[in-house]
Amino acid sequence: MAMNAARFLLHRPELVSSLVRGDEKLIQLMTGSARTLPAGHVLIEANTEHEYVYRLRSGWACRNRAVPDGRDQFILIFLPGDLFAVKSLFLTRHPDRVQMLSEAIVERVHYLHLQEAYSHDVDVANRCMWQLIEEERRLHGWVFGLGQGSAEERLALLLMDLRGRLVLSGAIAENALTFEFPLTQVQVGEQLGITPVHTNRVIKSFRERGIAALRNGEVSIQNFAELRRIAEPLMDAYERTAAQYGLPGSGQT
Known about the structure:
Layout: H1 16-30, E1 35-37, E2 42-44, E3 52-58, E4 61-66, E5 72-78, E6 83-84, E7 97-100, E8 104-110, H2 111-120, H3 122-148, H4 151-169, E9 178-180, H5 185-192, H6 196-208, E10 212-215, E11 218-221, H7 224-231, H8 237-241
Antiparallel strand pairs: 1-8, 2-7, 3-6, 3-8, 4-5, 4-7, 9-11, 10-11
Helix pairs in contact: 1-3, 2-3, 4-7, 5-6
């Protein structure tokens, strides 16, 4: 699936056509490589060499870091359409683990083939660079949220971010308020940086207040305006203006 040009808003308008072409060329480079991976499958072990760059066609994946005493922190969540493991282009070892959060279909290209395309095709180079810049944007927002946001604000931002990105990728309809959510409560806590007990309390509060319900691998947003109000202090300039993060069907941002 080629990406909608709206995915590239916030970046320089003169680059949009190149980014869309680069996305199409990457799809061609990965044609015939699709494979299905089960939930929980570790695609890349931390601190190991890896030779491939991937594209997520369906399902969810994450980059996370764990330490021997059992602590685990989610770093990024990947959704359909995302490139991931782009580090393979530049690094001999991946510092963190990449694993599937749900059953997923992934495509891949060997880093040497991608390096060749990257060196000779500005569209491919722009698309790869955009993915790294987009990941940086998400990470900056999440670092701010971890340092300055409340647990409620972080959960609201997580749900807003995931829904907005799923809409942009075409995985769900523009007016959808219910979507797949394969994370367990423990994994939500690992993303939010809070304990399982605290996670349970915040999720329960959202459900009881009629804001959003997380159950049976699904999120149902019941009061979008309130969810956005809670998340808004942590939203960046892109999220505050993109239509996909506004009230569904209202055109408001």
